[in-house]
Amino acid sequence: MNPTALLHAPRTLFARLVLILFVSLALVQSLSVWLTRTERDQTMTNVMMGYIESEVTSSVALLDHLPPAERAAWLPRLARRTYTFILGPGVTGAPPDVELSARVAQSIADGIGKRYALTVNAVPGDPDRLQVHLQLSDGTPLTIDYHPVPSAPLSPWLSWVLVLQLVVLVACCWLAVRLATRPLSQLARAADTLGPDLQAERLPEDGPDEVARAARAFNAMQDRIKSYMTERLQILASISHDLQTPITRMRLRLDVLDDSAQGAKLQQDLHEMETMVKEGVTYARTLHGASEAPLRIDPDALVESLVFDYVDAGKDVSLSGRIGAQIVTRPQALRRIVGNLVDNALKFGGSAEIAIAASEAGQITLSVLDRGPGIPAGSLDAVFEPFVRLEESRNRGTGGTGLGLAIARQLALAIDATLSLHNRPDGGLEARLVLKRAA
What we know:
The chain is an alpha+beta fold. It has helices at 3-7, 13-65, 68-78, 99-112, 156-192, 209-255, 261-288, 299-312, 331-349, 404-414; strands at residues 83-86, 119-123, 126-135, 141-146, 295-297, 317-320, 327-329, 352-358, 364-369, 417-423, 429-435. It folds into three domains: 13-146, Beta-Lactamase; 193-289, Signal transduction histidine kinase, dimerisation/phosphotransfer (DHp) domain (Helix Hairpins, Orthogonal Bundle), CATH 1.10.287; 292-435, Histidine kinase-like ATPase, C-terminal domain (Heat Shock Protein 90).
């Protein structure tokens, strides 16, 4: 098949099935109409051949028995719509090569050819027209001039009936395919809504056996995934809880020891262990889903309060742009996303600039800009994976735990937003958060 044709083919299963059914049924309907019309024409032709054979035979016999002086007066009476009689030799020409003319000639020959010697030829310039030449008993030449008429016209209402049939055909195809593909659309919609919160709609387990079986399998899959994620969260929470106790005991023991360089290093290690445990649990909770309910908030006020907190802490964070409208989202998740992005900008660039704007399409774009070293183009997506750090030295002061961006990406999915990283042309990194629906 031509690849270009495949590119222009309908992309949806619904459109493809409608096209296949409509084209197939339309071809069958067209073939049926063609066969019916062909059979009708053949039947009419057979009837006409028998009629011509009997009528011409009777007319020639009548002319042969009439006195020569009376024959000319009878010619108009014996003429028919498709043939006339000429008392004369007519015109000469080549043998007829049109199927209908050949059948007419054969029919006339079958009727009178046993008594009269016949010659048949097509009229020059009109291949459908033919003349049959013979001589009556007294030697008078007689020519039968045959000129076929077009086939019987179609009834005027037949075209409207065919159009109505096509309309009914399209409607039936659309309805049948719609009913057949609706369960697939529901399944795709349920799969799309199966996000980090694992609260996708359950499919109705009814309909045809195959549909009901697929719905039961999908619902069971949702339950299994939710169970696995819950069990994972419980394991991480238990590990975190169990680790808190020995970490606390180790801190207490370090406090009673002499202040030394080794003690400070151990304190730092314990702090890093505690941070890693807390961020691991936080990431697990974002995977399990956000329990926070969506609220209508003022995003300008939320971002401004976050910026003021950083400024009060002596951090170089600035804000530009305003939205000027309220949105419905999960405020704590949004605050955590922006906070993680700002922390990364401060860590690697020393400063952060937050720029927010609303587009005419109703989207809100929140960008966190820095002047750090940026990220290699091939790693812009990889850094969103958990525990991925570009800092090979694994220095906690710059490398972190490798979970900040992973947590931000999961929270972005939970609030129906997209998070991406882009290197700035003049140096630095842009973390771009796009909220898909603003209202």
